[in-house]
Amino acid sequence: MVNDVSRADLARRAGLGDWPGFDLHSRRPDGTERCIEVKGRAGIGEIGLTGNEWPQACNLRDRYWLYVVFECASAYPRLLRAPDPFAKLLARAKGGVVVDEPAIFENAEA
Q1: What are the phi and psi torsion angles at 59 (to 5°)?
Q2: Number of domains comprising the chain
Q3: CB 59 within 8 A of CB 25
Q4: Is-contact 16 25, C-beta < 8 A?
Q5: Is 3 helix (H, G, I), strand (E, B) or coil?
Q6: Is the pTM value of this prediction over 0.85?
Q7: What range defines the domain where residue 87 resides?
């Protein structure tokens, strides 16, 4: 089951706090949990994680996944899924945290 938790009211309805730091909360039949932050770019480039999202990636580690859709404005968008972005993706501070696209391509699943 996947719940949209991108807004405070939806997160509360799913039994989470107002701002969980991710957009989707998934529980698989085997009990596996996945906390998914979704980012989209019209083209290809770096993506930003907020000051709430990055700490959650740190706290949740292997349960936190970053899904990035590159070229989402095109006829052929590309979805990449990066597990445990805190451990695997090089980031730099810029208000929130910025992750370069080469790191996503290198460490994510297509």
Answers
A1: -70, -40
A2: 1
A3: no
A4: yes
A5: strand
A6: no
A7: 2-107
